[in-house]
Design brief:
Number of helices: 2
Oligomer: single chain
Order of helices and strands: HEEEH
Helix content: 25-40%
Shape: elongated
């Protein structure tokens, strides 16, 4: 799965988990109806360093029925270099924090 699609899917699932009543889908979604709110995200950092830091910085914007915007920087996330599962867990923790912030604005 390409990274762009994986991040979009993961964020949509994490945001949906914050509010089970929501009908959240990621692009490209089935065209059954026009979206009520659109989320745009620019990832400025989505990486990990050799010394064990996980970096995630993003700007997000909600357009449509819900209008909001913000910047998110994950802090204090770590991974164990050489351990892929640790890297994935660290990046997922960063995405979960971003999803929580966005869900709070919906």
């Amino acid at each position: 799965e390409p990274l762009q699609e994986a991040v979009a899917r993961a964020l949509s699932e994490l945001i949906a988990a914050q509010d089970e009543r929501s009908n959240i889908r990621f692009y490209p979604w089935p065209q059954t109806a026009a979206p009520v709110t659109t989320l745009r995200i620019q990832l400025h950092q989505f990486a990990a360093t050799a010394d064990g830091c996980v970096l995630l910085a993003a700007y997000w914007q909600l357009e449509g029925e819900a209008r909001a915007q913000g910047s998110y920087v994950a802090e204090g996330l770590r991974w164990t270099p050489g351990q892929a599962a640790s890297l994935v867990a660290g990046l997922n923790a960063g995405l979960a924090g971003l999803a929580q912030e966005i869900a709070g604005a919906l």
